[in-house]
Specification:
The protein is an alpha/beta fold. The chain has two domains: about 1-155, Ribonuclease H-like superfamily/Ribonuclease H (Nucleotidyltransferase, domain 5, 2-Layer Sandwich), CATH 3.30.420; about 160-210. The chain has nine helices and seven strands; from the N terminus they run H-E-E-H-E-H-H-E-E-H-H-H-H-E-H-E. Strand 6, helix 9 (about 190-195) and strand 7 form a beta-alpha-beta unit. The longest helix is centred in the C-terminal third of the chain and has 22 residues, at about 135-155. The N and C termini lie far apart (about 45 Å). About 40% of the residues are buried.
C-alpha cells in the first residue's frame, strides 16, 4: 500500500494526501471525512481499509495514525446538509473541507472512489483506494472512528435506536425502532423516504421526536 502511494511521487509531486469518508449508508447522523499526509517513508503496520478491520483494531490504530501523520484534517457534514445536497455531494464536500483543513498543502490528493472534488490541487479518484493506498486507508480509519464515536455519544440521547451498536446503519433493529417510535431530528429524511416510503405521503411530513 505504501508503494502504491509512492508510485505517484515525481519531481513536482512530493507531498501526497489520502482522503476518504465514512457514513454514506446510515439512516441517521453525519458523514465524516478525513484527509491525511504522511512522510513518504512513514509506515504503520496494520493499516488497511477500515471495513476490513474490527472496531478494536481501528481504535488501536487511531492514535498511532494521529501521532505519526504529518497532519490530519477532519470534517463532519450534518444529516441536514446530506438531505439538502445529497450524500454524494455531501461526501465530496466533506473530503474537500477535510483537505482544506490540512496544515500542509499537498501536491496531490488521492481520493477513495470514482469522483473528484473541485480544487486547485490535483486530485485523483482511486476505485477501491482504501484497499490500495496507505494514506487513503489511514484516512478511512480516522473517519470511521470519529463517526462511530459521534454515534455512540448520540445513542445516549436516542437509546431506542441502538446507535452505539448499529452506528445509524439500516439494520433490522434500527428500521424496526423507526417503525415503532418514529423518527428523530437526526434521521436523514431522504434516506428514510427511499427505505421506508410508508412514512411519506403528499400531505404529511415525517414525525420528528425531540
Amino acid at each position: 500500500m505504501k508503494n502504491f502511494d509512492n508510485s505517484f511521487l515525481t519531481d513536482k509531486v512530493k507531498i501526497i494526501a489520502g482522503c476518504d469518508e465514512a457514513g454514506r449508508g446510515p439512516l441517521a447522523g453525519p458523514v465524516v471525512a478525513a484527509s491525511i499526509i504522511f512522510k513518504n517513508d512513514m509506515f504503520i503496520d496494520g493499516i488497511n481499509d477500515s471495513k476490513k478491520l474490527n472496531e478494536k483494531q481501528r481504535e488501536e490504530l487511531f492514535p498511532e495514525i494521529l501521532n505519526k501523520a504529518e497532519c490530519v484534517g477532519v470534517s463532519v457534514i450534518s444529516h441536514g446538509v446530506i438531505d439538502k445536497i445529497n450524500i454524494l455531494q455531501a461526501s465530496l464536500l466533506g473530503m474537500k473541507t477535510a483537505t482544506n483543513r490540512l496544515k500542509i498543502k499537498p501536491d496531490l490528493i488521492l481520493i477513495d472512489g470514482n469522483k473528484c472534488f473541485n480544487s486547485d490541487i490535483k486530485n485523483i479518484a482511486i476505485v477501491g483506494g482504501d484497499s490500495r493506498s496507505f494514506s487513503i486507508a489511514a484516512a478511512s480509519i480516522v473517519a470511521k472512528v470519529v463517526r462511530d464515536n459521534i454515534m455512540k455519544r448520540l445513542d445516549k440521547y436516542f437509546p431506542r435506536y441502538l446507535w452505539a451498536k448499529n452506528k445509524g446503519y439500516p439494520t433490522k433493529e434500527h428500521i424496526q425502532a423507526v417503525k415503532i417510535f418514529g423518527t428523530t431530528s437526526l434521521h436523514r429524511k431522504t434516506f428514510l423516504k427511499n427505505i421506508l416510503p410508508e412514512y411519506y405521503n403528499s400531505n404529511l411530513e415525517l414525525k420528528h421526536l425531540k
